[in-house]
Amino acid sequence: MVSSVLSMSIVGAGVAGLVKSRSRAEVLGLGARTLGARAHQDVTLAVRLKRAAFDETLAAAVHSSFAPAIYKDDEEWGSALKRSSVVLQWDPDHAPSGHAVERRAMQLGLRGAALRSYAREWIVEIEDISPFVAEQREHARSGHDERLVLPREDVYPVTDPIVAARLKLS
Known about the structure:
alpha+beta, 6 helices, 8 strands, 32% helix, globular, disordered N terminus
């Protein structure tokens, strides 16, 4: 069922939300994030996850640095960070050219139980999209932006208001 599997570009528009990509063709466009700053990569994989697994990951995420609006003090945050198997950080996002854009990209680091679940239970499909990314990289390098195949992005619906607030989503 399409709604049970989510192919994802984890990108936030400021604090407006997460972004998802819906179709298989759009998933291939996710490799475009590697065109600029990560041009040295030899292999790019598109990983499709179960949607419920991604929602579970978001619910378990703890910020990588102290966020006073979320945690009452350093001690509470530090304790949550030590216990969590998902670490969240917002980084600058980049256009295919490698230039920074206004929105932020959510980085999720997995360890412990979350990493085991990711490897053993959450993955639906892995596809090597390296040839596609190499082709897109050449379009970007040669200034042929009109030839780039990029995903249509929609705001990911984080339905739990507590999780959305903790992730600093509006």
